[in-house]
Design goal:
The complex is a heterodimer of chains A (205) and B (192).
Chain A: E1 2-13, H1 22-34, E2 38-39, E3 43-54, E4 58-59, E5 66-77, E6 84-93, E7 96-100, E8 107-110, E9 118-121, E10 126-130, E11 135-138, E12 143-153, H2 167-172, E13 178-183, E14 190-191, H3 192-196, H4 200-203
Chain B: E1 2-11, H1 13-41, H2 59-73, H3 90-97, H4 105-114, H5 119-125, H6 129-132, H7 136-150, H8 155-191
Helix pairs in contact in B: 1-2, 3-7
The chains are: A mainly beta (205), B mainly alpha (192).
Chain lengths: 205, 192
């Protein structure tokens, strides 16, 4: 689920931070830049793991900033293909089920990646799974197991302004920079309660 | 920014968890140390000590850290168990225990993160388990190694926690909806 990524970057320390230990100032700086951000084709950055090297600090002309070249490793959320993870159902549409974790919300299980017998229940807006004798519900907020199948990357580099009134529409159609397509068709996948608790099948209406 | 190595290593949830917990402690310690130093310096001068931005970690880091720790501690994650079923030697012990079988690195990581203790759970993690490890004997032996290293989950407590979490989230959602209704009503009053 997590990997380490090695990065080289230029860190600029503002005079307000001179009071801090140098290593601490660099760490804060890196975290402020990367934590909770997505790097294309790398993943969602969590935080600094360790600092590998740092150059002497150099003060540039005209500013009081101290420039330091650093090499460091970041903890990055990037589940590998076919990895099994835990998450919660956030909503369902006829197209499929949306799953989130506390820190990552762009996981989608398309309808064709649900087990055979799964269908969308229009009245309750949830998916159900009909087996031989029971109907099981993919209720919202249920903890589920899913398998990572594909990744979707959307580079959000600024594009040329279209100008005029359409600007706002463009803004609203933003897609998430990093999304995961998952499946729940194998046995053992889907709500954990179905598999971990034997009695639960009888409790479910 | 220059990416030197896109993936230099893989980490287990436990390693990320310890890193975050230690980071939290470090920031906390730094804050108290600084406040104490300031208190000493300003003794007798009667000035109030303000918290400054230097005390705090970057906001995006705080969000990330809190959300991720919540996720890692939530049932049925083994990291939510007390006492913690992992220590520094856990990974080594598990690798030694599972040496007779041929697991991929990804499978080992998933075993560490998810702690499968039933054949059905192991089946989701291990690809083509029936071909690679045929027979109940092998599978039960694998599960007993996992259980010996990582312990046995408290199934009842976990299902209870999962149900409670789901119910809580549902209640919160309903609460939100009610709030929205109230505000629209209020708006209508203002208009009228």
């Amino acid at each position: 689920m997590f990997i380490l990524t090695k990065i080289a970057d230029l860190v600029q320390i503002v005079p307000e931070d001179f009071e801090k230990e140098a290593s601490q100032a660099i760490e804060d700086n890196i975290n402020a830049k990367y934590a909770n951000r997505v790097i294309q084709k790398i993943g969602l950055c969590i935080c600094l793991y360790d600092l590998l090297s740092a150059s002497e600090g150099l003060i540039g002309h005209g500013t009081g900033l101290v420039n330091v070249n650093v090499e460091f490793r970041l903890i990055v959320f990037r589940p590998f293909k076919h990895e099994v993870l835990l998450g919660k159902i956030s909503s369902a549409t006829p197209e499929g089920i949306r799953i989130r974790t506390n820190f990552f919300k762009d996981i989608f299980v398309p309808q064709h990646r649900l087990p055979e017998g799964a269908a969308f229940n229009d009245a309750e807006q949830v998916f159900t799974w009909t087996t031989e004798d029971t109907v099981l519900y993919y209720d919202n907020h249920e903890t589920v197991r899913f398998r990572v199948e594909e990744e979707r990357w959307h580079d959000q580099a600024p594009t040329k302004a279209t100008g005029g009134e359409n600007d706002q529409d463009v803004e609203e159609r933003k897609v998430s920079p990093y999304g995961i397509i998952a499946s729940m068709e194998d046995s053992g996948m889907g709500p954990c309660l179905w598999w971990d608790d034997v009695d639960v099948a009888e409790e479910v209406e | 920014m220059k990416i030197l190595e896109a993936q230099s290593a893989a980490l287990t949830n436990y390693e990320v968890y310890t890193h975050l917990v230690q980071q939290d402690e470090r920031y906390e310690r730094r804050k108290t140390e600084r406040l104490e130093r300031l208190k000493k310096e300003k003794k007798g001068k009667g000035k109030a000590i303000k918290q400054e931005h230097a005390d705090r970690r970057p906001g995006n880091l705080a969000t990330m850290s809190i959300e991720l720790l919540n996720y890692l501690r939530e049932a049925p994650s083994p990291l939510g168990c007390k006492p913690l079923p992992y220590d520094e030697k856990t990974i080594k012990r598990l690798l030694e225990g599972l040496r007779p079988w041929d697991f991929t690195k990804g499978e080992i990581i998933m075993i560490l993160n998810l702690r499968p203790t039933k054949p059905e759970n192991l089946n989701t993690i291990v690809e083509e388990m029936e071909e690679r490890f045929p027979g109940d004997e092998d599978q039960l032996a694998i599960l007993s190694v996992i259980e010996a290293v990582l312990g046995r989950p408290d199934g009842d407590a976990e299902t209870k926690a999962m149900k409670a979490n789901a119910n809580k989230a549902r209640e919160a959602e309903q609460g939100d909806e009610e709030d929205v209704e109230i505000t629209t009503e209020q708006k209508m009053d203002v208009d009228g």
